[in-house]
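wait is this the right file?? whatever heres the structure
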């Protein structure tokens, strides 16, 4: 860049920054430290060349769309998107600085900040989506369950299917001296907690974690283990596991290969549950506030594009995601869950307009109550080994989930008419009491300990896990 060009660029950045600061001042609402800095500095990014990681799942779509539709470029960013082998490699890449950020499991920045596994101060300034996972069982297991399942007038199974229907199958395995094994993608993944929630709601214990243990099989009726998402179908086909919890397109891949049957979606387990986040190092956001704001603006625009006009852009999104540098699955497999339908079995495709939500229903806003729910499940199954006061859960949620950064990026988009005002919720960071769970147990994010106590299977106050089992009152 010539000196003249550089001077012009810096001048435009200063002018843009001043305009943004005037806009924020006109809002009449104070911004907290980093958020105000990010918003005011948003005229010129400090680090225009970025590398972001992702796993080959359809819910990485906001990143792919931000790249392919030019939203990153509009914000002055030159972004490389790099697929990662598994969630551990991705996490290490962000912590070590090889990646500037990543499409990340909602539980990963929380767990890292709590020191569960690797300790690092990570933040989640935006949620990438709602829903998007399912639980698939092998043909053999589904065949053992199917005769007992309630049927609709069309002869097809009524949904949601309860894990209670799996109990006799698990019992038969135990009688034969065989463990019943299922896969999930990572110990602190939503997939793990959704699978555990579904099993426990049906009366099956998915096991507890001892301190430092990543297996979580103490007292388990069903043994869960980690398998990277793209390897799920092959692992199922090999008979290593009898089912799995994973994001798309890897449930639909099992249907296409005729090796398994999805039996329940995560939306049926927890209606409109949060799924992935953009994970960043806290010091990255502090060092590069304008870059962080620019990234968030680009992703918000991509999320809006994905949900625009009832999903009119989804067919194009499917073509983009099917590319080998993104998800790399057949377009038909991706479309089977991405375009308002979900295929449970050949000949059993049902409406599922909310299976993937990226922008609607304030999908991008990082609610404290979502982070707290994840921590309740960590405590429920022993990953958080001891009790904590309700205030502790909120303190930790605020350290990781950063609505201040989200608002600093989103408010200028509202001011410019890019997104509607209702895209930003009027909230204290908590959703209303949630009754959208498969077992009908209500969740109030303000009262995490009372919620943990209300769940039939799981640790209760005063209990701990040892290799010998659960101890305490």
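ok assuming it is, sequence goes like this
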């Amino acid at each position: 860049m010539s000196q003249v060009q550089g001077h012009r660029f810096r001048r435009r950045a200063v002018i843009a920054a001043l305009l943004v600061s005037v806009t924020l001042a006109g809002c009449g609402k104070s911004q907290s430290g980093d958020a105000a800095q990010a918003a005011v500095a948003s005229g010129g990014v400090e680090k225009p060349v970025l590398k972001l990681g992702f796993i080959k799942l359809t819910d990485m779509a906001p990143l792919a769309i931000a790249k392919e539709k030019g939203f990153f470029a509009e914000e002055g960013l030159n972004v490389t998107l790099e697929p990662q082998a598994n969630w551990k490699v991705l996490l290490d890449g962000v912590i070590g600085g090889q990646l500037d950020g990543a499409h990340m499991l909602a539980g990963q920045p929380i767990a890292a900040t709590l020191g569960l596994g690797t300790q690092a101060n990570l933040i989640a300034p935006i949620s990438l989506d709602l829903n998007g996972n399912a639980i698939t069982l092998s043909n053999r297991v589904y065949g053992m369950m199917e005769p007992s399942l309630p049927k609709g007038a069309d002869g097809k199974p009524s949904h949601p299917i309860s894990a209670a229907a799996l109990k006799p199958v698990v019992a038969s395995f135990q009688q034969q001296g065989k463990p019943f094994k299922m896969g999930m993608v990572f110990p602190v993944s939503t997939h793990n907690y959704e699978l555990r929630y579904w099993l426990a709601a049906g009366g099956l214990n998915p096991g507890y974690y001892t301190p430092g243990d990543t297996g979580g099989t103490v007292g388990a009726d069903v043994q869960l283990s980690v398998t990277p998402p793209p390897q799920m179908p092959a692992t199922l086909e090999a008979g290593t596991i009898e089912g799995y919890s994973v994001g798309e397109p890897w449930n639909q891949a099992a249907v296409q290969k005729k090796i398994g049957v999805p039996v329940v979606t995560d939306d049926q387990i927890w209606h409109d549950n949060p799924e992935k986040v953009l994970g960043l190092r806290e010091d990255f956001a502090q060092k590069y506030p304008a870059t962080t704001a620019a990234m968030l603006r680009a992703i918000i625009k991509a999320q809006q594009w994905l949900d625009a006009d009832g999903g009119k852009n989804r067919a194009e999104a499917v073509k983009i995601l099917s590319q080998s540098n993104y998800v790399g699955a057949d377009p038909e497999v991706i479309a089977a869950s991405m375009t308002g339908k979900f295929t449970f079995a050949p000949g059993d495709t049902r409406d599922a307009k909310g299976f993937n939500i990226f922008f609607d229903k304030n999908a991008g806003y990082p609610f404290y109550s979502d982070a707290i729910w994840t921590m309740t499940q960590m405590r429920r199954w022993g990953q958080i080994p001891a009790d904590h006061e309700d205030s502790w859960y909120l303190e930790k949620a605020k350290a990781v989930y950063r609505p201040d950064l989200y608002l600093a990026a989103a408010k200028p988009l509202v001011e410019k008419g890019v997104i509607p005002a209702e895209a930003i919720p009027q909230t204290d960071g908590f959703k209303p009491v949630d009754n959208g769970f498969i077992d009908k147990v209500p969740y109030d994010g303000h009262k995490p300990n009372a919620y943990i106590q209300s769940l039939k299977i799981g640790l209760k106050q005063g209990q701990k896990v040892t290799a010998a089992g659960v101890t305490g009152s």
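Residues 3-127+278-326+352-366+401-423 form a domain with the D-Maltodextrin-Binding Protein; domain 2 fold (CATH 3.40.190.10). so i think its the right one actually
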